[in-house]
């Protein structure tokens, strides 16, 4: 009996394999689908229904729609309903299918209103070539001046996005062909200048201003000071986009809803620049953070905007209240007042709701691979990547209720990042109380999931971060667009690092924990609290950051150059009443001379004072010796 049952199961598997490859799936993809019992059962039903209506030969476009419907459908009871529209050629595109899936998800009660469903999915809508031509012509007319100026360097994706927003159900390829045709008619064939590589943006470090003459750190050397940090960050200096013109940024992804979302964003912000400083409250800020504070708060201030102080408190195991207090204290010590103090935990409810939506859209799944299995640059793909949406929703709810242990389940997003990392984790299980939310949550979002969505919620215009986060830019854009929410722009700048010092927070924590230093404010460290304890004024640290400059590359300097930034105290001379140690010399002239000495040797524009040069010269007693000591 067992052998007969096994043979029957093998025959069913072979039959299903033939059905799946018959709709255009590769054999490898078909076998992977077979490993997912729920998905393979739904897909088999869909294919058999389609074959009964259209015959055994199904084209690949129909097969793709059937697979997408089976893999993304939340409620299997609507499968036959959707397949009917596919086989009747009333749902022809993935855009229509996505609208259909969204409709049945948001209308769980039966029977469905067929007329309303068809309106929502564009059934029967016929977009004529003439309509496409008119829409593209109108869009190009609005951007004619910019097109003529920038020619083929203009972001053609913007034209596509605006045309599609006017004609929602038009075929994307037809719109692209029409855009290409009309652009060619307007600009003519590409010239040699058009074919040249786009020149790199000018260096962010502006030309020196001659009247400002002070020392500057440049790769550890001393040179001439550049403009102030506010001047470096003002206006067009960094070639950043203007608020609301996110789509003009290279690499920005334009979707059919981008322009509407940007319009809504501008209505909320009034076109104001918005930045944020997002520290993790698991340590004290160091000199490298000072540049980030100056860059984020400084850019907002230089352009009439605002800056949020947002704590990235998504890892409760390492966070302490003393760090929250110290971080804000250091920001204010450097002279900046946050527009608002927020926390990633303020948005935990919204982030969880969006995670559910991401699963419903087929863009996230619950995975059981261990941490060590997904580490590295080329980990094996997850065998649970294509599990049914409904199954992932139930398992994610189990994660929230604490039914999985730490490391037993994660929520992962379906994307490949710029550094090749596949399907980054969005949520993980941690049975650690949170200092703000207590025991409400036992799942916490990761940086890759949280950061861009918090930026979207706060309507940040410029998400400024250091270069190591460049590999996260693709996931930043992808996640906002996957959820169809406002997408800010991430810009990267070079970190500040000092030679022969320890500025890594992880290493400083190790020094503190092992007792190598007394605490975070040990004067031997380069944390901001330690520098303050050593007597460095905040103006000196801000001045040092300005001299390093707002550059793309790593800003290296020697720690000895930091004291050179302390220019708050002028030079003064004072004569003590003690007469010991005086020596006499012949008078240099019949009358006493007055010598002009600069108050600030590095900046003579800040005034001089007079020092009398008389017949009697006083020497500090400890500096005077009649008989010199022999050299050792």
TrEMBL record:
What UniProt keywords are attached to this protein's entry? Aminoacyl-tRNA synthetase, ATP-binding, Ligase, Nucleotide-binding, Protein biosynthesis
| Secretion signal, residue range per the UniProt entry | none
Q: Name one GO cellular component term.
A: aminoacyl-tRNA synthetase multienzyme complex
Report domain Glutaminyl-tRNA synthetase class Ib non-specific RNA-binding positions: 14-172, 175-263
A GO molecular function held by the record: glutamine-tRNA ligase activity
Organism's domain of life?
A: Eukaryota
Question: Where does the record place the Glutamyl/glutaminyl-tRNA synthetase class Ib anti-codon binding domain?
Answer: 591-627
EC number(s) given by UniProt: 6.1.1.18
Protein name in UniProt: glutamine--tRNA ligase
Species the sequence originates in: Accipiter nisus
């Amino acid at each position: 009996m067992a052998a007969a049952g096994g043979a029957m199961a093998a025959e069913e598997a072979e039959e299903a394999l033939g059905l799946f490859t018959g709709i255009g799936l590769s054999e490898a993809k078909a076998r992977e689908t077979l490993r997912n019992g729920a998905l393979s059962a739904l897909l088999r039903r869909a294919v058999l229904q389609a074959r009964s209506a259209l015959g055994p030969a199904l084209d690949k476009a129909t097969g793709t729609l059937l697979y997408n419907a089976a893999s993304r459908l939340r409620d299997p009871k609507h499968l036959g309903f959707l397949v009917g529209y596919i086989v009747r050629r009333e749902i022809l595109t993935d855009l229509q299918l996505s609208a259909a899936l969204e409709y049945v998800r948001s209308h769980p009660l039966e029977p469905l209103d067929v007329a309303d469903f068809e309106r929502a999915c564009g059934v029967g809508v016929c977009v004529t070539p003439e309509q496409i031509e008119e829409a593209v012509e109108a869009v190009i007319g609005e951007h004619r001046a910019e097109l003529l100026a920038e020619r083929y360097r203009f972001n053609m994706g913007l034209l596509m996005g605006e045309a599609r927003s006017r004609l929602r159900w038009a075929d994307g390829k037809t719109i692209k062909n029409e855009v290409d045709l009309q652009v060619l008619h307007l600009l003519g064939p590409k010239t040699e200048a058009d074919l040249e590589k786009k020149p790199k943006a000018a260096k962010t470090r502006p030309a020196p201003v001659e009247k400002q003459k002070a020392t500057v750190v440049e790769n550890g050397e001393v040179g001439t000071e550049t403009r102030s940090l506010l001047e470096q960050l003002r206006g067009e200096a960094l070639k950043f986009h203007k608020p609301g013109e996110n789509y003009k940024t290279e690499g920005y992804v334009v979707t059919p809803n981008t322009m509407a979302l940007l319009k809504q964003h501008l209505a909320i912000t009034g076109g104001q620049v918005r930045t944020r400083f997002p520290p993790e409250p698991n340590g004290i800020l160091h000199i490298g953070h000072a540049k980030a504070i100056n860059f984020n708060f400084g850019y907002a201030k230089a352009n009439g905007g605002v800056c949020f102080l947002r704590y990235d408190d998504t890892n409760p195991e390492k966070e302490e209240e003393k760090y929250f207090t110290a971080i804000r204290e250091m920001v204010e010590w450097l002279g900046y007042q946050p527009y608002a103090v927020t926390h990633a935990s303020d948005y935990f409810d919204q982030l969880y709701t969006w995670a559910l939506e991401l699963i419903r859209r087929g863009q996230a799944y619950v995975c059981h691979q261990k941490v060590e299995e997904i580490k590295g640059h080329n980990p094996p793909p997850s065998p649970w990547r294509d599990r049914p949406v409904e199954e992932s929703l139930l398992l994610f709810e189990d994660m929230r209720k604490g039914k999985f242990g730490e490391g037993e389940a994660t929520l992962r997003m379906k994307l490949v990042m710029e550094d090749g990392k596949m399907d980054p984790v969005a949520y993980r299980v941690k049975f650690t109380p949170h200092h703000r939310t207590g025991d409400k949550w036992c799942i916490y979002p990761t940086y890759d999931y949280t950061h861009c969505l918090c930026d979207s919620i706060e309507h940040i215009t410029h998400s400024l971060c250091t270069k190591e986060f460049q590999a996260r830019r693709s996931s930043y854009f992808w996640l906002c667009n996957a959820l169809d929410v406002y997408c800010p722009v991430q810009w990267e700048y070079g970190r500040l690092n000092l030679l022969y010092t320890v500025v890594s927070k992880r290493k400083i924590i190790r020094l503190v924990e092992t007792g190598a230093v007394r605490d975070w404010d040990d004067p031997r460290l380069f944390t901001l609290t330690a520098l303050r304890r050593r007597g460095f004024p905040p103006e000196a640290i801000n001045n040092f950051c300005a001299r390093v400059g707002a550059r793309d590359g790593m800003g290296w300097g020697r720690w000895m150059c930091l004291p050179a930034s302390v220019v708050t105290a002028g030079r003064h001379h004072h004569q003590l009443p003690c007469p010991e140690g005086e020596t006499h010399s012949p008078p240099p002239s019949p009358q006493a001379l007055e010598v002009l000495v600069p108050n600030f040797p590095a900046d003579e524009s800040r005034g001089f004072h007079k020092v009398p040069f008389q017949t009697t010269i006083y020497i500090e007693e400890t500096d005077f010796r009649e008989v010199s000591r022999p050299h050792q």
